Amino acid sequence: MTLQGNAVIGQSGGPTVVINQSLIGALLEARRHKAIQSFYGALHGVQGVLDQNFVNLSLEETENLERIATTPSAALGSVRKKPTEDDCREIFRILQSHNVRYFFYVGGNDSAETAHIVHTVAEADGYDLRVFHIPKTIDNDLLVNDHCPGYGSAAKFVAMACMGDGQDNRSIPGVKIDIIMGRHAGFLTAASALGRRDESDSPQLVYVPEIPFSEDRFLSDIENVLSRQPNCLVAVSEGVADKDGTPILQSKEVDSHGNVQLSGTGALGDHLADLVKSRLGLGRVRADTFGYLQRSFPGIVSEVDAREARDVGARAVRAAVTEEAQSGSIAIRRIADGPDYASETFITPLSTVAKHTKSLDREFLNSAGNQITDAFRDYALPLLGGLPEMGGIKAPSVDAIKG
Amino acid sequence: MTLQGNAVIGQSGGPTVVINQSLIGALLEARRHKAIQSFYGALHGVQGVLDQNFVNLSLEETENLERIATTPSAALGSVRKKPTEDDCREIFRILQSHNVRYFFYVGGNDSAETAHIVHTVAEADGYDLRVFHIPKTIDNDLLVNDHCPGYGSAAKFVAMACMGDGQDNRSIPGVKIDIIMGRHAGFLTAASALGRRDESDSPQLVYVPEIPFSEDRFLSDIENVLSRQPNCLVAVSEGVADKDGTPILQSKEVDSHGNVQLSGTGALGDHLADLVKSRLGLGRVRADTFGYLQRSFPGIVSEVDAREARDVGARAVRAAVTEEAQSGSIAIRRIADGPDYASETFITPLSTVAKHTKSLDREFLNSAGNQITDAFRDYALPLLGGLPEMGGIKAPSVDAIKG
């Protein structure tokens, strides 16, 4: 007989614009199964469990669900917390007292690790608990997955931002540096060039964390572009590091997973802009750090991403109640490419996505390591659900009149 | 008989996402009038005139026009240049040699000043030239105008960005500082709060250049918010200055109109974030500088703004060829408020909008000067053409179980 009891869902890590699609996908699926009695939301992830800070999502107004689904950022609140073994024992005591038998955790690899720890301690304690991780990350760096929910929409924002900013930089020429999120993986920074139409289009240069960053090389690359045209837009990952792996610039702030703060400061952009100004002696050099808008801007959503985010939430609940597995992480596999793009979900053991991350394939970058390739375009474009078309003057020039 | 000849149009100053609507509005109107023979576009404004860098827009493919209209940033290229009297004489020599009798210049108050200078020298020289300024500025600071084309869309971007970022800041609580464009006028920064639903919603604090900025006051305002809730989003104009008018932080870079560089650096945000961290001893403090995305992000366009931007372009050409005036600036007057919002265009002398700017009305801010009022909401909301609705969990909490 199917395990009967209540369910808890939590959201963790950096939010995305589609993380609530996963929440609503899970909730709507749960309403179809009698095994789950009440579906609780833990406010701020495992911290909410520890504080018994639950809301009863089974009583949420149905007409409110679609509005929540299209609202950016974790509706239940998020957290960056890695529970200790003691925390986990307290978590079970609380889950048991609430007759919770299903635990769903939406997040990235840190969240998968949290789910893995919860699951491991549950097993050791002999507490019958289904634990499923639901993937989410704008970084697109989860192992096993072809790509991750949250990435397509963030990539769409970054691609569109660079298309617009490229127009701006062409209209008032100079060097423009855009700093893009991505601690270790360059997927999001690489997306900056997905709207690029030709060699002269922006961004002319792309720097990801996977390729050792050299300031000298960065400056000569820019000089090289400026020898051909007056404008140069450069996309740089916040996580770029030198050949020894030392980040070019970072703060000392660290969270409980050991992650260093990179976002929420303009320091790297300003440093690189100063470098270009002083070393190349250029006048108009600007830097923008896209910051939290990349993961939270309402309305810039890939339809493909929204659908897949909802699917992984639903699949986690379905897998749990149908006893397809006792625990696991929902993953995404691509089953068709190009205009026929299609994907499906499957279950992978929690340990396979926990803790570790993947990087951008080397074939996604050109040999110089400063621009994306068609292989990356083929991989990423279907995930964005379309990009706007940029127009431009095609009218012929008028002959100058000597006088 | 109507003055016969060619026309030149240029775009100047900081671009917007609807500046090409004005270009296409003017061009389509010109095609209806025989007085204008060829319609030239000057690449990069008056610099393009000086360089005889013209394209013949009369030969532009018609099916390309709407694509240009919806593309952000000046399709002809922009410039920040104040022509000298010598430049102006050279401009006339060139315009005359090309039989140009109509000169249209799209831009803000600096561009109106440029148009005014060109017009004044033309009159003194006895050269028969119609000179019209077409308004554009995300700063919304042109005199005479109820509001300016470009503002509604930039305001929509800022309002939406803060709605999303506010969700993000609520989901992972802390202090978040968002730096918003606006050298002297706080209209764009004030727009940050247009999506705010209640007192606890983001941004909780708004600082504009019109109100002297005090770091002590800023810190105590934040402490006050944090005494009521764990999250505080603060919108700060890049142009905030202390009681003596000294900007809190600025670079030394100045353009030929005497404008100091404020955008394209994260320095102000980082400074304020450091201040909050060190003086209030808070952990999670982040700052983002919205930067050039505010004026260039494709697709985040107010329909009202796009329509009005096209209207002012068309009106300039109509006014010139019908000899409604010899010169002038097209301005916008509001003729109905609220849900029935409507506006009309009229002609004002170039001198009335050149050089000087307007500020945010004091009644648009609360008595503390750190939040917008309903008066501002009534003024600005119709210009945005709607904002998305944010959802939130309404489900009841679950009683804690003591154990």
Describe this structure in words.
Chain A has helices spanning 19-30, 45-50, 62-69, 85-97, 109-125, 151-171, 187-190, 215-226, 267-280, 293-296, 303-321, 350-353, 374-384; strands at 5-11, 36-42, 54-56, 100-107, 130-135, 175-180, 205-207, 232-237, 285-289, 327-336, 342-348. Chain A has 403 residues and is an alpha/beta fold. In chain A, strands 3-2-1-4-5-10-11 form a 7-stranded mixed beta sheet, sandwiched between helices. The first copy, chain A, has a 4-stranded parallel beta sheet with strand order 7-8-6-9, sandwiched between helices.
C-alpha end-to-end distance of chain A: 95 Å
CATH class of the largest domain in chain A: Alpha Beta
Helix fraction of chain A, binned, reads: 25-40%
Ranges of chain A where pLDDT stays below 50 over 5 or more residues in a row are: none
Give a concise summary.
By secondary structure, chain A is an alpha/beta fold.
List the SSEs and their pairings.
The structure is a homodimer of 403-residue chains.
Chain A: E1 5-11, H1 19-30, E2 36-42, H2 45-50, E3 54-56, H3 62-69, H4 85-97, E4 100-107, H5 109-125, E5 130-135, H6 151-171, E6 175-180, H7 187-190, E7 205-207, H8 215-226, E8 232-237, H9 267-280, E9 285-289, H10 293-296, H11 303-321, E10 327-336, E11 342-348, H12 350-353, H13 374-384
Parallel strand pairs in A: 1-2, 1-4, 4-5, 5-10, 6-8, 6-9, 7-8
Antiparallel strand pairs in A: 2-3, 10-11
